[in-house]
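Summary for the lay section of the report: proteins are chains of building blocks that fold into shapes. Here we show the chain for Antibiotic biosynthesis monooxygenase and then a coded description of the shape we predicted for it.
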Amino acid sequence: MTTPLTLVANIEAKAEQVEFVKSELLKLVAPTRLEAGCIQYDLHQDNNNPVLFTFVETWESKALLQAHLNSPHLAMYVQATEGAVVNFKLNEITKIA
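The coded shape description reads as follows.
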């Protein structure tokens, strides 16, 4: 049995684009949760700095994550938010305790 893959995706929106980026990120949640291999896909917004968003994701496998990264709804998000996002960082993490 393969160990599920956990990711933390950090998105920093431009200050004047926070609500727009938030609305576009929210559009990803429902279709992504229906994807094969999606165990967890939760969106968070920083309490002290609202330009910062974090997805905590768990996928059954790297291959199923890759399918998500190539999904039409993710491509639409990237296109829609071009120029509205300052920084994006994706970290793969492993639970150790």
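Put simply, here is one thing we learned. The two ends are 19 Å apart (CA to CA).
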